[in-house]
């Protein structure tokens, strides 16, 4: 009887979700987590009002109305003025006075997606409200990593300053009822800095719809990503210049958005701006997937997507596996020679259907854990 009553409370619960960007299409990192979390909230019976910021050509699409009861759009105030603030740019540029007015229409709990949206955490008008923050990264660590990778000096300085601003701003998290970390490592980091804060791990949400895993693949190696992002561009160059030459008899495909790459060896094919259908086709056909990164922050949803959408072998380095519970389904390699050796070995290794089924069960369990963790909001 008690369980039935609790389920009834969850089913009629209202919730405000403040997203850092329009979360559809769910086509990169953080917005994948936001969108499929909205799907999970709808499934759990929450009545959701989504507050979101539209920029970079992203606009509100009808698909969001299928997972939210109300959608309110705000504009980011980008430009140099927002950079002059003592607040982090990602926070200051989302300052909109109408957001507070819209949050005060009722007393429903508020889920802030990312530190980007947390300007109002300590606002007196919200002092009595249940406030939950979803951390997609330890942001000051992420920006410090960006400063180390920046090719231009002024960019390195900018990222370093933002890192310091973000670290100071993170103290506002103490005004929350609950913080959802995306990995156990992030949870530990937050608890060490703020021992009194209520922090739980909430695994990321993603499209767990898995194709029929029959193990039919073709003998090529795939790397994919948004190649206009500096981190992904560096990885693509690393593969082309240091890995592919060690495997002259192996075909490599590098696919992604806005590549600025020149072929350096004949066994590399570059696929610029693939459609969703083209990318899904590549994911399904590739015998081997290279999952590499030089930035061990947050969690790499690209790896989860590959584990879900493909049935090929996966080679990943330790930075890519940072925070992942599914690393047992990958072959770890670090140096160009280790990666090349793994490619040669796995290219001749049949796809294990039993292992694919085990992978499927692990992904389903991960999503079930995420769905169950959302119920903590109802108990605050």
Entry summary:
By secondary structure, the protein is an alpha/beta fold.
How would you characterize this protein structure?
It is a single chain. Helices cover 38% and strands 18% of the residues. Strands 3-2-1-4-5-6-7 form a seven-stranded parallel beta sheet, with helices on both faces. Strands 10-9-8-11-12-13 form a six-stranded parallel beta sheet, sandwiched between helices. α2 links the parallel β1 and β2. α6 packs antiparallel against α7 and α9 packs across α12. The relative contact order is 0.11.
Give the arrangement of secondary structure elements.
Elements: H1 2-11, E1 14-19, H2 29-44, E2 47-54, E3 70-75, H3 80-83, H4 89-92, H5 97-103, E4 110-113, E5 131-135, H6 139-149, H7 153-169, E6 178-181, H8 184-193, E7 199-201, E8 218-226, H9 230-243, E9 251-257, E10 268-272, H10 276-285, E11 286-291, H11 301-309, E12 313-316, E13 331-332, H12 336-347, H13 353-373
Helix pairs in contact: 6-7, 9-12
Structure characteristics:
380 residues, alpha/beta, Rossmann fold, seven-stranded parallel β-sheet, six-stranded parallel β-sheet, 13 helices, 38% helix, disordered N terminus
Please provide the count of β strands: 13
Unreliable segments (pLDDT under 50, ≥5 consecutive)? Answer: 1-11
Please count the helical segments.
13
Portion of residues in beta strands equals 15-25%
């Amino acid at each position: 009887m008690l369980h039935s009553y609790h389920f009834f409370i969850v089913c009629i619960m209202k919730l405000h979700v403040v997203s850092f960007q329009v979360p559809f299409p769910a086509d990169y990192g953080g917005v994948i987590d936001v969108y499929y979390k909205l799907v999970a909230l709808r499934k759990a019976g929450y009545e959701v009002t989504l507050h979101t910021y539209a920029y970079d050509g992203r606009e509100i699409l009808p698909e969001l109305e299928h997972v939210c009861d109300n959608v309110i759009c705000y504009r980011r105030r980008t430009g140099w003025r927002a950079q002059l603030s003592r607040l982090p740019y990602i926070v200051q540029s989302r300052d909109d006075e109408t957001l507070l007015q819209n949050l005060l229409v009722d007393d429903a709990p508020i889920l802030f997606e990312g530190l980007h949206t947390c300007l109002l955490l300590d606002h007196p008008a919200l002092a009595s409200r249940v406030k939950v923050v979803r951390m997609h990264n330890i942001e000051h660590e992420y920006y410090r990593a960006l400063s180390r990778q920046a090719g231009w000096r002024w960019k390195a300085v900018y990222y370093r300053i933002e890192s310091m601003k973000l670290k100071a701003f993170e103290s506002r998290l103490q005004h929350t009822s609950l913080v959802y970390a995306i990995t156990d490592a992030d949870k530990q980091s937050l608890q060490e800095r703020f021992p009194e804060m209520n922090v739980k791990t909430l695994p990321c949400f993603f499209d767990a719809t898995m194709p029929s895993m029959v193990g039919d693949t073709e003998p090529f190696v795939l790397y994919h990503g948004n190649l206009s992002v500096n981190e992904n561009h560096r990885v693509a160059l690393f593969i082309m210049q240091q890995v592919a030459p060690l495997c002259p008899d192996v075909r490599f495909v590098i696919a992604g958005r806005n590549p600025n790459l020149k072929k350096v060896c004949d066994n590399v094919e570059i696929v610029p701006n693939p459609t969703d259908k083209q990318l899904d086709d590549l994911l399904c056909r590739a015998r081997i997937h290279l999952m590499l990164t030089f930035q061990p922050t947050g969690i790499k949803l690209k790896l989860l997507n590959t584990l879900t959408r493909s049935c090929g072998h996966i080679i990943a380095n330790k930075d890519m596996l940072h925070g992942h519970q599914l690393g047992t389904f990958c072959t770890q390699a670090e140096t160009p020679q280790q990666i090349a050796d793994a490619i040669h070995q796995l290219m001749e290794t049949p796809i294990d259907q039993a292992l694919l089924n085990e992978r499927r069960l692990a992904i389903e369990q991960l999503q079930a854990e995420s769905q169950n963790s959302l119920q903590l909001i109802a108990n605050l």
